[in-house]
Amino acid sequence: MTKIKFCGLRREEDVRLAASLGADFMGFILTDRFKRYVAPEEVARLKEYVPSFSKTVGVFVDEPEDYVVSSSKAAKLDMIQLHGSEDDAYIADIKAKTGLPVIKMIKPLSGNDIISARQSAADLILLDSGAGGTGKTFDWSLAKDLDRDYILAGGLTPDNVGDAVERLKPFAVDVSSGVETEGIKDFSKMKAFAAEVRKI
Questions:
Q1: Helices marked H in the chain — which ranges?
Q2: Residue 69 and residue 86: Cα distance in Å, rounded?
Q3: Cα-atom radius of gyration of the chain, to the nearest Å?
Q4: Of 32, 136, 174, 182, which residue is the least packed, with the fewest Cβ within 10 Å?
C-alpha cells in the first residue's frame, strides 16, 4: 500500500492530526527562508506526539552540511530530505555524518532527470515540481520509467491523489499545500487525502 507523508507541519495540532490518520512520514521544514519553517528544537518537542510507526523527516534546501548535521541531531530526526541542488558527494557526506537515511528531491523535466533519479546515492527519491509547497504537478508520465522506490509530490490534493496512486503506484505520496486552507493544515482535507490514498 502507498505510504503517506504530510509535510510542512508546524503546530502540535498538525502533528496530532497526522498521527491520528496514520501518517507514515511527517515532514518539517528546517530551512528558515521558507514560510513553513520550524526550529529544530521545536521539532524535537513536537516529536513526542509522533507515534513510533511514523518517521520524522527534516527538509533542508541547499544548506551547509554542518547545519544539516547539527539540526538533525537537535531535532531528533529519523530521516533527512534534501530539496535543493545537493549532489551525490553531499548526500554521501550527510549520510556518513548523521547515520540517517536521505531522501533526495528530483525535479523531473525530462527523461534525463529520471536517469539521475535512478542513479542517485540517496536512499529514497522524491519527485516534485519545484522547491516544495508550490501546488503544481509535473508530467506524471515521466515517473513511469523510474524503476526504484520513490515518493510522489507536487500539486497533490484529495481530488487527484487517488488517480495518481492508481496510475503510478508510488512508494509514498507527499502533500503540504494541498491539504491546507489559507496556509494552515485543514483536518478535513488531510482526512480526505488519506482516505483517497487508502481506498486504492
A1: 12-20, 40-46, 65-75, 88-98, 111-119, 161-168, 187-198
A2: 14
A3: 15
A4: 182
Phi, psi (rounded to 5 degrees) for 164: -60, -45
Q: What is the pLDDT of residues 59-100, one digit of tens each?
A: 999 999 999 999 999 999 999 999 999 999 999 999 999 999
Percent of the chain, pLDDT > 90? 90
Direct distance between the N- and C-terminal alpha carbons of the chain, in angstroms, rounded to an integer: 8
Choice between 141 and 97, residue whose per-residue pLDDT is larger: 97
Pairing of strands 25-29, 55-60: parallel
CATH number at residue 150: 3.20.20.70
In this predicted structure, the answer to whether residue 36 has a pLDDT above a threshold of 90 is yes
Q: Could you say which of 14, 123, 128, 186 is catalytic?
A: 128
- Say yes or no to pLDDT of 16 above 70: yes
DSSP string computed for 183-195: TEE-HHHHHHHHH
**Spatial distance between the Cα atoms of 199 and 193, rounded to a whole number of angstroms:** 10
Residue 7 known to be catalytic: yes
| Residue 131: predicted pLDDT | 55
Q: Residue holding cell 519545484?
A: 130
- Measured CA to CA in angstroms, residue 17 lies from 14, 113, 146, 149, 187 at distances of 5, 34, 32, 26, 7
Domain hosting 62: range is: 3-198
